[in-house]
Amino acid sequence: MALKGLDIFKLTPKTNCKDCGSPTCMAFAMKVAQGAVPLEKCPHLSDEVKAQLSEATAPPMKTIKVGAGNNEHTLGGETVLFRHEKTLVSKNLYAVKVSSGMDDAANEAVFAAIPGLDYERIGERMYVEFIYVDYAAGSDKGKYLELVKKAASMDRALVLNCADPAVAKEALEIAKEGKPILNGATAANCDEMNALAKEYGVTLGVSGADLNELHDTVAKLEAAGNKNLILDVGTASIKEAFGNAVQIRRASVKDGDRTFGYPSLVNIAELAPGDDTLQAALAAMFTLKYGSILVMSGMSYAQALPLYGLRQNIYTDPQKPMKVEPGIYPVNGADENAICALTVDFALTYFVVSGELERSGVPVNFLITDAGGYSVLTAWAAGKLSASSIAKFFQEKDIEGKIKNRTLLIPGKVAVLKGEIEEKLPGWNIVVAPNEAIQIVKFLKDMNK
Ligand code: SF4
User: Fold this and answer.
1) Each residue of 341-359: pLDDT tens digit?
2) Partners of 409 in the beta sheet?
3) Which domains occur in the chain, in start order?
4) What's the rounded mean pLDDT across residues 46-65?
5) 123 lines ligand 1 (CB under 6 A)
6) Which is nearest to 98 in space by CA: 58, 49, 154?
7) Does ligand 1 lie within 6 Å of residue 29's CB atom?
8) What is the number of the ligand 1 atom nearest to the C-alpha of 43?
9) 28 lines ligand 1 (CB under 6 A)
10) Better-scored residue on pLDDT, 89 or 94
11) Index of the ligand 1 atom closest to the CA of residue 13
């Protein structure tokens, strides 16, 4: 049961020493209760109090680390049902499925497509994070292990879906370096699967015939000391899988049922086999509610663009402006002789304008000034983008020492700053660029004629 701020306050030293960064012990206790700061911020809590509080103040859903190295991912840790309540913590991740029950050509096509889908959007890498390697009932063990070998060489995290402990052990032996998720624990095999997961130090995926059975199996695994789990919502039907995903999240976040406080896995490939359009629609639904890993038959650009965009919108903190680092960004091979174009550090502005600059083919030194992460007009209205702030940026980044060309394009929306900038930057030719990014290509080409 989650503790209230007052309960936590009673256990603090009540000295108001401020070492935790909060002005009083009460303020600290309230922040801990909201999950805003960790207990460890107070260096004066006894081990006994820490032990007493750590379980009670932990998020209702556990944070699980899976994979290794570059392919390590964090799942879970959520504290709310909806994004408007609080920022969601761990974005859901996408997997593509290969299976010993599929023919070789189909598996090869899935493998071949994985490296091709890898792009950046507003500073975030968009790619298929997981390969789900399925051991189909009655299929050839040798073929499965070959698939595991191939998947382990693909520089992605793995989910090994295998309910046969003997085969799972061989698969884990092949893929153990990458710390895969072992999915396939059930009421019938959970003891052996638990022993395997512990031996290899990997996360165990659990499923059940229904939610009651799943709950009982998870409780049994927890009693055996395993709290490194992920819950498979099942594939009986779309309706049931969705209902399970929602009930599991509600039970953990709203009702404080920590037995269901784990990330989830949704096998969309099984829910809509052979129907890519329905799979994309289901992936959108489970991105919103409440799949942590979504397994699809494959991922094309047509599926990825809307899905990854949706995910980025859902998991971005709306209270934090998305910023890029201020500095000089050479575009199209620009050197010290290329013209300069300046804009603000709002990430969306940067990516939209840099895309148009690239499209023009004209070498440009793209200058990003610190404007608090606001868009051009907002930054100007808030006093964060002015002739003085631009002159300061030029000085701090030594623009005149690094670039010989003395032509500077400023955003059309702040054309009003032209005169003041000319005064602050003598010797520079200040040119007002178009209002809209899409007009930049023609504008630059015309300038270069
Ligand atoms: S560091 Fe601990 S004792 Fe000091 S103010 Fe913070 S909560 Fe209170």
Assistant:
1) 999 999 889 989 999 999 9
2) 341, 431
3) 5-57 (1.10.15.40), 63-315 (3.20.20.20), 327-447 (3.40.50.11600)
4) 85
5) no
6) 154
7) no
8) 1
9) yes
10) 94
11) 3
